[in-house]
Amino acid sequence: MATTEKAKTLTSAQGFYFGGLSGMMATCVVQPVDLIKTRMQLQGGSPVTIVSNLIKQEGILRIYKGLDAGILRQLTYTTTRLGVFNALQDYLTTTDSNGKKVQPNFAMKIVSGMVAGGIGAVVGNPAEVCLIRMTSGKFNYSHVGQALVRIAKDEGIKSLWRGTSPTVTRAVILNAAQLSFYSQAKEVLIKYNIMQDGIGCHCVSSLISGFASTAVSIPVDLAKTRLQSMKTVLDPVTGQMVPEYKGPLDVITKAIKNEGILSLWRGFTPYFLRLGPHTLLTFVFLEQFRFMYGH
Questions:
Q1: Which of 35, 45, 210, 290 has minimal Cβ neighbours within 10 Å of its Cβ?
Q2: Which CATH class for the 12-293 domain?
Q3: CA distances (Å), 260 to each of 30, 91, 244, in order?
Q4: Residue 101 pairs with which residues in a beta bridge?
Q5: Three-state secondary structure call for residue 66
């Protein structure tokens, strides 16, 4: 691993492709946890019960079901969001009278994270829909390519952007917390000589970022998950087949009414165990790329 050296930065282009590559590498590690989180939100039950039933009914290799969709999601979503965020940070960084670079304040980092997350969510939504469906256990897709084709063919190409509203909302909230808290925590740790710019600093900053992101984004993630995996149901009044939910607010309202308000944070542990390590690995990988290839 690289050690602390002179401060280096990535170019805008490097921010995009190294960001995507870092996200894909992290996904290869945490994909099983993402599957568990999705099934908890859809089916309920504990992580142990879900894993036990999954292995018993489908085999141990099924814990990596949807990995190809997860990688495609990182290729589209994470490449975009980290690239846009880094580009915005470069644009907003100024130079003082002494020639020293001044990073944008925390509020501007939050705004940058929101913008980057929203753009990334729109770009990555088709892969997100495929990932949710492939890990839900409700759909029998062999691979992400088949999922993309079948969804577009059977339900219309617009269905690939189903749930875009809660996906964008979640991404805006999550990235506002994740990217800004990571950047701010890292800046404070280094500025006040608490830690040096190295793996230890990156890990601590990532864990702070991951916890904050989990706390604020999981209710929206639950709404997004249920919208993207919903099927049509029979309306007892009209006798017609209608979507299970009308929108994200309907999902949250029904969840609170039928399952209690704490159900909005169902799957918090696997969500954090997925988001925390994924955040940590993504930023650690990205920082190592910065050390090795930065300028």
A1: 45
A2: mainly alpha
A3: 29, 45, 19
A4: 95
A5: coil
Tokens 């996906």, located at residue:
167
Q: Are 75 and 68 in contact (CB under 8 A)?
A: no
From first to last of its 295 residues, what are the pLDDT tens digits of the chain?
444 445 788 888 999 999 999 999 999 998 888 888 778 877 778 888 888 888 888 888 888 888 999 999 999 999 999 999 999 999 999 888 888 888 899 999 999 999 999 999 999 999 999 988 888 777 888 899 999 999 999 999 999 998 888 889 889 999 999 999 999 999 999 999 999 999 999 999 999 999 999 988 888 888 888 887 887 888 888 888 888 888 888 999 999 999 999 889 888 887 888 788 999 999 999 999 999 998 8
- Compute the distance between CA of residue 249 and CA of residue 257 in angstroms, rounded to an integer: 12
State both tokens at 10: 């990535």
Dig out the tokens for 23 from the structure: 């996200």
**Nearest CA to 224 among 259, 183, 255, 186?**
255
Across the chain, which distance is largest between two alpha carbons, in Å?
73
> What three-state secondary structure class fits 2?
coil
> Pairing state of beta strands 94-95 and 241-243?
unpaired
Let me know how long the chain is: 295
62-82 CB burial, b ≥16 within 10 A, e <16 = ebebbbbbbbbbbbbbbbbbb
Residues 41, 223: Cα–Cα separation, whole Å: 9
